[in-house]
Specification:
Layout: H1 2-42, H2 48-53, E1 69-71, E2 76-80, E3 85-87, E4 89-93, E5 101-105, E6 111-118, E7 121-130, E8 139-143, E9 146-150, E10 161-162, E11 168-172, E12 176-183, E13 196-204
Parallel strand pairs: 1-6
Antiparallel strand pairs: 2-13, 3-6, 4-5, 5-13, 6-12, 7-10, 7-11, 7-13, 8-9, 8-12
């Protein structure tokens, strides 16, 4: 009887020791896992859930399918190139651009067009342009069929600037709608490509 009691006590002691070993191992495993996660975060790593939340939808321009009709109002207005009817023009998105988009003149057949209704008076057009060098800076703004060559500073600043060196000035003697076109070339002279244009600024002079 004493032998049976002794054996039972030994068995219970063994079970208790195993239970304690299992219980203390779990926090150690958790602690090691936390250390690994902290090391990954220190290296710039992210949890899978965080990686998924970083994925953002690409912002795209909604294409304009016909030449827009715009009525000039006030003393100054912007004509955003993304709101014009374009052909062979690429658009880039950034918070630094007006209305989030800027256009890239890709080739000799690139163009952007808008019809603007004006009251009688004199007007000025400037473009907000970014050119990296003098070989990718000059382009043309047409008012109806009249081309005006424009470009930024010489040499270009490499940042967005207004084309104040070559303002486009014209007059209309009565209320009328004019077609404003942006393109690389004129019928008689070659312009250049590769520049970015954010918008046109149309201002009434008198």
């Amino acid at each position: 009887m004493k032998k049976i009691l002794f054996m039972t006590a030994v068995l219970l002691a063994a079970i208790f020791i195993c239970s304690c070993a299992t219980t203390t191992a779990l926090p150690a495993e958790k602690e090691e896992g936390a250390k690994v996660e902290k090391r990954e975060e220190a290296k710039g790593g992210k949890k899978e859930s965080e990686k998924k939340s970083d994925v953002k939808a690409e912002i795209k321009r909604t294409p304009v399918t016909s030449i827009p009709q715009i009525t000039f109002s006030g003393s100054t207005m912007k004509i955003e190139l993304e709101n014009m009817y374009t052909e062979d023009i690429a658009f880039e998105h950034s918070d630094e651009y007006s209305s989030s988009f800027a256009a890239v003149i890709k080739s000799a057949v690139s163009s952007a067009k808008a019809a603007v209704t004006l009251s009688a008076g004199s007007y000025e057009i400037l473009a907000r342009e970014k050119a990296e060098d003098s070989g990718h800076a000059a382009f043309y703004i047409f008012v109806d069929n009249e081309p005006y060559r424009v470009s930024p500073s010489e040499p270009p600043l490499g940042t967005f600037e207004m084309t104040t060196r070559f303002p486009v000035t014209f007059s209309v003697d009565k209320a009328k709608t004019v077609l404003i076109t942006v393109q690389a070339n004129s019928p008689h002279h070659l312009g250049q490509t590769g520049m970015m244009i954010d918008y046109l600024q149309l201002r009434k002079l008198n």
